Every structure is written in structure tokens, then in C-alpha cells.
Amino acid sequence: MPLIKWRDSYSVGIEKFDKEHRHLVELINRMFVIVRDKDNITAVSDAVARLIDYTEFHFSSEEAAMKEAGFPNLAAHQQLHARLTQEISAFQQKIVAEESDVGPKFYRFLRDWLLGHILEEDKQYTQYMIATANR
Questions:
Q1: Cβ partners under 8 Å of residue 87, min gap 6
Q2: What pTM does this model have?
Q3: Where are the alpha helices (DSSP H) in the chain?
């Protein structure tokens, strides 16, 4: 399974969020390496905890910017963020319980979700913010 490589097509056009998204990619890739190398459960749990903490920071950052810009779909975007947070927490519990093969499934879930979320959902709010700023 390949690591995620940042591509220019993932850019949402707002440097702050691109930087945060790149950092999320780095955290996901680090977690993948730890799982792939079968590091101990403490290392895996620590990597997941760092990922969760940064994800919460990033979501808060995005939501504050959307609110400030008056983004009309803020509530729906917040629900997507809340759902992801719940799903990550469920995976974290499985990892702590040392369920077999959960690491690769978690990585695939994160990769697919992050890239899909950036390309489909985040680009909507950034297009709105950029258009609003140019008025």
C-alpha cells in the first residue's frame, strides 16, 4: 500500500489549509509506517492520538474560517467533521484492543476520506471564501 503523496490537485487555494492538509497527510503516513513496521501498541496509540489531536485542531480552524466568511453550508460541514471524529475514535478503540488487521483498514479509511473530503467538500468552502473575498 503506497504512502499518500501530496499533489497540487489537492490544494484548496488557501495556503493555511493546504499547510494543515499536508500536515495531516504526514501524520497519516507516519501512522502507516508505524503500523506497517509492526511497532508496539504504544507507538501506534501515540500516532493515532497525535492524528486525532491535529485533526480536531484543523477542523476547528476550518470551521472558524467558514463561520467568519458566512459559509452557508457550515452546519453540514461540521456534521462531516463530527462523523469523521467518531469514526477515528472507533478505530482508535479497535487499535487499543489490538484487533487484527485494523491498522491497514484504518490507513485506507483515512487516505480515502482525507483525499475525498479535500477534493469534494473542502474545495466547496474555499471556492466560496475566495469568491467572497474578491467581491
A1: 109, 113
A2: 0.86
A3: 15-36, 41-69, 74-96, 102-116, 123-133
- Give the SS3 label for residue 117: helix
Separation CA 116–CA 113 (nearest Å): 5
Q: Domain containing 128 — which CATH number? A: 1.20.120.50
Phi, psi values for residue 14, rounded to 5°:
-125, 115
Residue 107 lies in a domain: yes
- Cell numbers standing for residue 11: 490544494
Task: Give me 41's grid cell.
Answer: 501498541
pLDDT in tens, 9-34: 889 988 999 999 999 999 989 888 88
Report the domain count for the chain.
1
What CA–CA distance (Å, rounded) separates 122 from 105?
24
